[in-house]
Amino acid sequence: QVQLVESGGGLVQAGGSLRLSCAASARTFDYYAIGWLRQAPGKEREGIVCHSSSGANAWYGDSVKGRFANSRDHSKNSVYLQMNSLTPEDTAIYYCAKCWAGVNGYEYEDWGQGTQVTVSS
Q1: CA distance 64 to 51
Q2: What is the overall mean pLDDT for the chain?
Q3: What confidence tens digit (pLDDT) does each residue in 74-94 have?
Q4: pLDDT digits (tens, 9 = 90+) for 53-81
Q5: Which of 8, 22, 24, 35 qualifies as a cystine partner to 50, CB 3.0-4.6 A?
Q6: Which of 77, 68, 73, 1 shows the shortest CA–CA distance to 36?
Q7: What distance in Å separates the CA atoms of residue 105 and residue 23, rounded to the nearest whole number?
């Protein structure tokens, strides 16, 4: 089982950028697609990224496409989410997790404790 720990959240003004990190505990990290999901106050969790185990392919949700970019560093068992052009609607707790393409969209499991991102207007 892979344990994931997110970091890098914080407070940023609208239009700004943040880079989130996700560190995995196990070498088996290499075998899993890893992605990100987020949960805004009063809303359900929303999957926003799923990045293949090889790093060659990544899916982005419509709400973040063109603004967010995910990368994987296998040497550090880590993934990074670069978030640009942030808006108050991006305010949420962000989680990294194992992911896969399900019948009704991307699914996630084993997410960490999350990191808070707050975007002020």
Answers
A1: 14
A2: 94
A3: 889 999 999 999 999 999 999
A4: 888 899 999 999 999 999 999 889 999 99
A5: 35
A6: 68
A7: 25
